[in-house]
């Protein structure tokens, strides 16, 4: 089943197994990245941070990079549309421990593209080039780029932009195989990514719609990419990236964690969320993760509905513990993940920012 991946060199950083956790606002926060990293991911990327917010050191932006998180190599993603501001923000991220800066040319949500950031930059190649150039020159760490196929089906300029990026000194490119106008609709076009791979001699990472092992193999075959990036496929499965790595190394699909291990992980994740955000915010942020961990287990819809009504963190913990114990007592051994669909839900979340020309990106 597997096709072994070679390590990737991104400047001084070696990505031993190029299976990468995608940046996802509101999802790949410090608690989640830490679990995915500990399970053995090749690389994890932070939620996107607006360059203006980084410079103004908003609480939200500071929370997204925790210098004490011990995540090892961390790629921090920046969004913005002003070269000098992006460059300044990149320097601050490096000061706070970023080992790689990733630039976002992929986010499709209105609040970001109307500020002329995210995928809107794919429409303005000269400005895109100036941003890449400014950031590469500003920092000593490698700079990478994440983008889509293009703005729409008539403007599929990812291969051209990849060449511009290579000339600017970008060290790795990730392509989500959709256009901006597709948002999260339709299916990711892995074969298109081969055009980007053929256009540059940089490592190219394929992204979009990978949820199981056959997807990984097919995506790599169709795209010819050097690695894969996985986002929504990790919802409620922080171990999935590591399973993909094992599958690629050995050709065998690894077993799912036992239900006891899954229960312990949900509770550990929930504790980390409460600690990171505080009890009030953590209570709300924790709900979606608890829900994702329960997908495919019997009675999960009722369980999720109930969790959403509990207003005290300790009661949530008791309820979660009791629910898993009941499943274990009934002899349930695991989840049925067949037929699991992908939803974009929040997409790249943003918070409002009145700073000219740019929107601040939120937790
Ligand atoms: C909730 C959510 C938040 C996202 N936030 C970001 C982001 O901050 N930066 C970014 O480049 N892409 C973001 N994306 C896009 C993902 O990184 C990824 O490109 C996309 O989800 C396709 O991959 P997947 O099918 O494996 O999820 C987000 C996607 C989702 C669903």
UniProtKB/TrEMBL annotation:
<comment type="similarity">
    <text>Belongs to the dus family.</text>
</comment>
<dbReference type="Pfam" id="PF01207">
    <property type="entry name" value="Dus"/>
</dbReference>
<keyword id="KW-0547">Nucleotide-binding</keyword>
<dbReference type="InterPro" id="IPR013785">
    <property type="entry name" value="Aldolase_TIM"/>
</dbReference>
<keyword id="KW-0288">FMN</keyword>
<keyword id="KW-0820">tRNA-binding</keyword>
<protein>
    <recommendedName>
        <fullName>tRNA-dihydrouridine synthase</fullName>
        <ecNumber>1.3.1.-</ecNumber>
    </recommendedName>
</protein>
<dbReference type="InterPro" id="IPR035587">
    <property type="entry name" value="DUS-like_FMN-bd"/>
</dbReference>
<keyword id="KW-0521">NADP</keyword>
<feature type="domain" description="DUS-like FMN-binding">
    <location>
        <begin position="20"/>
        <end position="316"/>
    </location>
</feature>
<keyword id="KW-0819">tRNA processing</keyword>
<keyword id="KW-0560">Oxidoreductase</keyword>
<keyword id="KW-0285">Flavoprotein</keyword>
<dbReference type="InterPro" id="IPR018517">
    <property type="entry name" value="tRNA_hU_synthase_CS"/>
</dbReference>
<dbReference type="InterPro" id="IPR024036">
    <property type="entry name" value="tRNA-dHydroUridine_Synthase_C"/>
</dbReference>
<dbReference type="InterPro" id="IPR001269">
    <property type="entry name" value="DUS_fam"/>
</dbReference>
<keyword id="KW-0694">RNA-binding</keyword>
<feature type="active site" description="Proton donor">
    <location>
        <position position="107"/>
    </location>
</feature>
<comment type="function">
    <text>Catalyzes the synthesis of 5,6-dihydrouridine (D), a modified base found in the D-loop of most tRNAs, via the reduction of the C5-C6 double bond in target uridines.</text>
</comment>
<dbReference type="InterPro" id="IPR004652">
    <property type="entry name" value="DusB-like"/>
</dbReference>
<dbReference type="GO" id="GO:0000049">
    <property type="term" value="F:tRNA binding"/>
</dbReference>
<feature type="binding site">
    <location>
        <position position="146"/>
    </location>
    <ligand>
        <name>FMN</name>
    </ligand>
</feature>
<dbReference type="GO" id="GO:0050660">
    <property type="term" value="F:flavin adenine dinucleotide binding"/>
</dbReference>
<dbReference type="GO" id="GO:0017150">
    <property type="term" value="F:tRNA dihydrouridine synthase activity"/>
</dbReference>
<feature type="binding site">
    <location>
        <position position="176"/>
    </location>
    <ligand>
        <name>FMN</name>
    </ligand>
</feature>
<feature type="binding site">
    <location>
        <position position="77"/>
    </location>
    <ligand>
        <name>FMN</name>
    </ligand>
</feature>
<feature type="binding site">
    <location>
        <begin position="231"/>
        <end position="232"/>
    </location>
    <ligand>
        <name>FMN</name>
    </ligand>
</feature>
């Amino acid at each position: 089943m597997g096709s072994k991946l070679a390590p990737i060199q991104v400047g001084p950083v070696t990505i031993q197994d190029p299976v990468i956790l995608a940046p996802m606002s509101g999802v790949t926060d410090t608690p989640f990245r830490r679990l995915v990293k500990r399970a053995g991911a090749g690389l994890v990327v932070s939620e996107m941070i607006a360059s203006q917010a980084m410079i103004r050191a908003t609480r939200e932006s500071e929370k997204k990079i925790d210098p004490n998180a011990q995540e090892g190599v961390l790629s921090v993603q920046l969004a913005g549309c002003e070269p000098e501001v992006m460059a300044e923000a990149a320097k601050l991220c490096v000061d706070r421990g970023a080992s790689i800066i990733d630039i976002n040319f992929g986010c499709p949500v209105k609040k970001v593209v109307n500020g002329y950031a995210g995928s809107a930059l794919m429409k303005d190649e000269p400005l895109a080039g100036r941003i890449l150039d400014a950031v590469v020159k500003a920092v000593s760490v490698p700079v990478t780029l994440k983008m889509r196929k293009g703005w729409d089906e008539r403007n599929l300029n990812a291969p051209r932009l990849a060449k511009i990026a290579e000339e600017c000194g970008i060290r790795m490119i990730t392509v989500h195989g959709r256009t901006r106008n597709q948002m999260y609709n339709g299916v990711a076009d892995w074969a298109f990514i081969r055009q980007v791979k053929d256009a540059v001699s940089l490592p190219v990472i394929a992204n979009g719609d990978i949820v199981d092992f056959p997807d990984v193999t097919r995506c790599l075959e169709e795209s010819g990419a050097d690695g894969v990036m996985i986002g929504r496929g990790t919802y409620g499965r922080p171990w999935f990236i590591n399973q993909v790595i094992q599958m690629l190394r050995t050709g065998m699909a690894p077993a799912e964690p036992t239900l006891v291990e899954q229960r312990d992980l949900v509770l550990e994740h929930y504790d980390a969320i409460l600690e990171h955000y505080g009890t009030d915010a953590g209570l709300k942020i924790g709900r979606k993760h608890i829900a994702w961990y329960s997908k495919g287990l019997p009675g999960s819809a009722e369980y999720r509905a109930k969790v959403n009504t509990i207003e005290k963190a300790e009661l949530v913990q008791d309820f979660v513990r009791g629910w898993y114990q009941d499943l274990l007592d009934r002899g349930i051994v695991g989840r049925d993940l067949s037929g699991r669909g992908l939803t974009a839900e929040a997409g790249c979340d943003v918070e409002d920012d009145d700073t000219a020309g740019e929107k601040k990106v939120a937790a």
